[in-house]
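Hi F.,

I've been meaning to write this up properly since the lab meeting, where we talked about keeping a consistent format for the predictions we share between groups. The idea is simple: the sequence comes first, exactly as it goes in, then the structure tokens exactly as they come out, then a line or two of notes. No screenshots and no reformatting. I'm using this chain as the first example so we have something concrete to point to.
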Amino acid sequence: MGQLDMRMSMEPGEAAAVTQIFEQGAGLALSSTQRMRVQQIVLALPPSASVVDFVAATERQPDLVDFAVAVRRYFAEACAPKSP
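Output, unedited:
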């Protein structure tokens, strides 16, 4: 799956933008507490992280499992080969 653009110095605003994109793509609205935790996960991932890495880290949080599954499904559908 796609690489996240995670440099060593990702800013909190960039993590918020990534979280918002994932939230919109997954079609789920996170609580403010969940959103902050997702942003912390994004900030903690290494520069080489992929969406799979993000999903794996997010799935470890019991209240974020549904979000992780929705993000995985969104990217799987978006990256699936299109029929002619």
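Notes:
The longest helix spans residues 12-26.
The chain has one domain: 12-79.

If this format works for you, I'll send the rest the same way.

G.
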